[in-house]
Amino acid sequence: MLLKLFILSSNTLIIRPFEAVPYSSFVRMHKFTRLEHDASRRRTSCRSCMMLISGLLLKVNKLGKLLRGEAHMKVRLVQNGMFTTIEDTLQMLIPPDNGFYWIDADVEDLEMLQPLFQLHELAVEDTLSEEEQRPKIEIYDSHYFIVINSIRYDDEEIFLRALNIFLFKHAIITVTQQKINEIRAIKPILWEEEVNSPDRFLYHLVDIVVDKYFSVGDRIEVKIEKLEEDILVHTKKTHLNEIIGLRSEILWLKKMLVPQKDVIWTLNKKELRLIDDQLQKYFSDIYENAVKITETFETFRDLVGNLREAYQASVANRANEIMRIFTALTTIFMPLTIITGIYGMNFDFMPELESKYGYFSVLGFMLLTGSSMFYFFKKKDWF
After folding, report:
1. What residues are paired with 268 via a beta bridge?
2. Whole-number Å distance between alpha carbons of 80 and 321
3. What predicted TM-score, i.e. pTM, was given to this entire model?
4. Is residue 62 part of a domain?
5. pLDDT single digits (tens) 310-359
């Protein structure tokens, strides 16, 4: 049988019955296929080398920026609550004999910190994301990644700002996209408590963040009470918009409080090698506060629901009052309309029409009737 050989790759042959193929042609075909395969392997190897070189150059560039001091982060050595600013940023890679390093960084600094501290790429991706972050804790081999939300209440609006924390054995990295007041507020606490480890730093930072929710809750409670008083005194259409806006903010905040409470529960109950066992017990106080905050905002949701019911009841009462006034006026004018209708008939024999004082008598009777009915409705508090 005559066969024709087709070589698709070094490991694939197709043989079809067709015609005889000269041996020299077969050899040339086979050499051409091998050369093409070798060229493809060389191109793939070159691309891999280029990617490796690009990655190394990128890391060298980031390291160069770090050495030149172009990073925005602040590196501090914390020893018993005392701060020492570190100018040589590479020093933070060496664990200190006493204390720990606190690196207060921006999101732009993560590209330089990731290769130095071997930050997990998923944690870095979440930190760089512009989307809203839910509170969570992720445990990796060398560090923990923790996200908690700081709260602000400005111009009667609630704002949540993500605080990203990378916890190591001898260092802690805080990364924020906006300025957070809790970062500044923790400095005197570290000095007062003589903090000397990153896990205690984490404890005080979470405590400050959670306590801030209580002050915001007090301001929201005052707003609800004032809104309720305004609705009962004088209902306006704008009150409904305020109620709907406040309710949506409370519901949105409540969705964030539940996972944040779970994060604190993990810090309190789960065995974590980077957090001291004795320190974990103190997280129970923070967890209780988180539970109280969740219950408080749950109560706020019910109060806002009551405000909406009060607004609807007030509007209904207002409409009933208007209808009652219209009903009273209609009732007053009804007998007067009957009288004018009777004397408006075109009959020839109506004695009162020829009376000298008939017109004034009828007007007086109508006035007396209307006044009597008005006095009666006024006494019944219809006006």
Report:
1. none
2. 70
3. 0.69
4. no
5. 888 888 877 777 787 888 788 888 888 888 887 777 767 777 667 777 77
